[in-house]
Design goal:
Blueprint lengths: L1 H30 L4 H15 L4 E5 H5 L8 H31 L4 H15 L4 E5 H9 L2
Antiparallel strand pairs: 1-2
Helix pairs in contact: 1-2, 1-4, 4-5
C-alpha cells in the first residue's frame, strides 16, 4: 500500500517529467537506428522512472549469472557512448530534482530515488529493472 501511495505521489510531483525525459532520449535513439539498444534501455528505465518504489535496477549478469552482449565489453563501450550523448544530461536532471526534493524535507525519500536514477542514467546498458524482492535474491543468493 505504501509503495502504491509513494508511486502515485512520485508520479504527480515530478516523476512524470523525468520519465518523459527518458522516453524522449529513447525516441531519439530509435530514430538513429543504431541507437536501438540504447532506446530499449531508455524505455525500460523510463517506466521505472515513472514508478520507482518497489523496484530496483540490477545488473543482468548478477540476475541471470550469465554474461551477455550488454554486460561485457560491448556493454561498456555502449555505456561510454551513452554517457557522452545522453547519460550526463539525464543525471543532471535527476540531481536537480533530488536537490529540489531534499529542500522540502518531506521529499527526502523522493530525493533518494532521484539519486538512484541519476546513478543508473550514467550507465544503463546491462541493467534491468526487477521487483525489490527479486533484486535481493539476486544479490544475496536467497
Amino acid at each position: 500500500m505504501l509503495r502504491t501511495i509513494g508511486n502515485i505521489l512520485w508520479f504527480i510531483l515530478g516523476g512524470v517529467m523525468m520519465g518523459l525525459m527518458w522516453w524522449f532520449f529513447g525516441l531519439l535513439a530509435f530514430i538513429s537506428i543504431v541507437g536501438i539498444p540504447w532506446g530499449r534501455a531508455c524505455f525500460v528505465i523510463g517506466k521505472f522512472s515513472f514508478f520507482p518504489f518497489g523496484h530496483e535496477a540490477v545488473a543482468r549478469d548478477e540476475l541471470t549469472k550469465q554474461k551477455d552482449i550488454g554486460t561485457g565489453t560491448l556493454g561498456l563501450i555502449g555505456n561510454v557512448i551513452w554517457f557522452i550523448f545522453a547519460g550526463v544530461w539525464l543525471a543532471i536532471g535527476h540531481i536537480m530534482s533530488a536537490v529540489a526534493c531534499f529542500i522540502t524535507i518531506i521529499g527526502i525519500p523522493f530525493a533518494l530515488q532521484h539519486l538512484k536514477l541519476a546513478y543508473i542514467s550514467l550507465a544503463p546498458i546491462g541493467k534491468t529493472i526487477v521487483p525489490k524482492e527479486q533484486a535481493a535474491m539476486a544479490k544475496y543468493g536467497r
